[in-house]
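User: I want to check something. If I give you two sequences, will you return the structure for each one separately, not as a complex?

Assistant: Yes, each is folded on its own. Here is the first sequence with its structure:
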Amino acid sequence: MGLTMVALLLAACADGEVRVSPQKSAQGTDFTIVEVTTENIPSLIDEGRLVGATTLPAGKSGEYRIGSGDIVSVFVFDYPELTVPLAEGERTGGFAVQSDGTFNYPLIGAVQARGRTVDEIRKDIAARLDKFIPEPQVDVRIASFNSQRVVVGGEVASPTTQSITSWPLTILEAINGAGGLTENADASRIVVRRKGESYLVNLDGFLKAKSGSSNPILFGGDVVSVPLKRRAEVYVLGEVGQPATVDVSDEQVSLTQALARQGGIDEVRANASGVFVFRGEGSQTTIYRVDLRSPTGLVLGTRFILAPNDVVYVTRSPIQRWNDTISRVLPTVSVARTVTQ
């Protein structure tokens, strides 16, 4: 069922209450008609802003687990000889975790570090030193984080590799650490590659709609790629002043704004109760109806945020459809009358 045929179906319903169950078109596309009301507009505002929602799992930060390449500092109180002194030119001393996940410590030998937290290592060292030192007081810290890194590239000022530390690193912080987004960056389609899978992150959802799930925590091995911005449009068709596309790449545009930019609704030809927004998601299409005849409908139009690729369609009024039909038929009738005379 084409757009015109669907619009005719909707126009037939536009003068009354719309209560339509999910239907299937001739091409097998499911569509549902939703009447926009004061009750459901809050959820529709979020839906418009977050089309293309984040698919990267939020995850939990947890405690940092040490890996090969990290530098671990160990302090035993009252026993300075068991603390590695600072090498010339270094800020911190410590033990490098080797490729087998261990480091060697005086008196007790190899200490397993990889996959453990600093508290787990501290308890292990204290228990083993107890054979040589009475009630040893041990403190363990990470002097240098080297084992877990994320790569940030694409449309950022300074593509970089950043270390994961004991402080959780969100995608916004990682991008800021890379100098921030360029003017041509598309923050709504950031791709994160993790363990062989690609995930979408809509950072705009966090920056504009304050959606926490759109600023997820990154983990070691993640690769963040910020794509070039592509033009995002909505289509305004039907009985409006100038049917055309409206650019929504850089701002949120409401239904009322989109109509106003294209000359508004044609006061003579349009049916203000038959304003529809078509929004596709895979094989499912949702058709939103907004009745702009009433003051409430006019306010709802200013709150209904359009999403990229939405199609706004303003139907003709019933009397205008009749007038158009008469205009097409009259010439034929006149010709037929001339022939018979």
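And separately, the second sequence with its own structure:
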Amino acid sequence: MTVVINMRDGLDERGIRIAARFILEGKLVAFPTETVYGLGADALNENAVRRIFEAKGRPADNPLIVHIAEFDDLKKLAREVPREAKLLAERFWPGPLTMVLPKREEVPYVTTGGLDTVAVRMPAHPIALALIKASTPIAAPSANISGKPSPTLAEHVIDDFYGRIECIIDGGETKIGVESTVIDLSSERPTLLRPGGLPLEEIEKVIGEVEIHPAVRGKLVDVARSPGMKYKHYSPSAQVIVVEGKRENVRRKIAELVDEYRAKGFRVGVMATEEYDSDEFFHLGKTEEEVARNLFRALRELDKRGVDVIIAEGIEERGLGFAVMNRLRKAAGYRIVWA
């Protein structure tokens, strides 16, 4: 049985104590953060962390992010905390930034995907922070079946995990809608491993130029130094096609593709910033913030409506648009139509 704790109207101390007890007993708790919902376990309990991988069907070499509530907790997890990490934490924590650092011996290799580094962040969500403070540092990937779109509502978590984990905290819709930005600070040059909820431009204002790992642009890698680098991610059951190019050309190409697939007998869904004549339509919003917030919800919703093909409008790669396009291209398996 899964206990669902309703905190849509705000923090519930009794509910936090119940969820924290589950964590300390080595059980699994799904909880909201400002980015997406996480599937959490005690980061220092090997058996508990293994249950995350089993529940999600997640490959063992795909590292997890450890969530903390105080900066001092970082020193318990990381062997070294360079100057850049201190500057970024001071500026952006709590917030959607994950930093990869050399790990201490106390951090199990199961948590780090077998790596000598650990990915750490401090979430900017009152429920997440309260849960961590009441328990321990929590290892938590997104609370979805591995490879599927990340959850931005408790209903998404319930769809994937009800009856399979001990507890789900319902904190309503997440604010940002895409996962955290991951920066590797374990080597000489700061490197972006995954674009996310904190735009790269903001990070570079604090620590200068950041190298972009080739995996961000779709290059295959043998070793995943961060979540989101190596394996199939964010994909609904329907086939996803991303249309990119100049706005007027994109609009024309999407309309053509809708007609083409419908003529073949497929049910077609479109997710875009303006409406299209299709079997199903999901309006992503107008701003990059709205598009990011609605991205995974759109993929899940169109899947539920029974479409065979989802045609997604590409947006400009600036600010949160960089993370949006990274997720869309991965969801599509890099099936991209240039208009």
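Because they were folded independently, the notes below concern the second chain alone. The domain at 3-217 is CATH 3.90.870.10 (DHBP synthase). The two ends are 49 Å apart (CA to CA).
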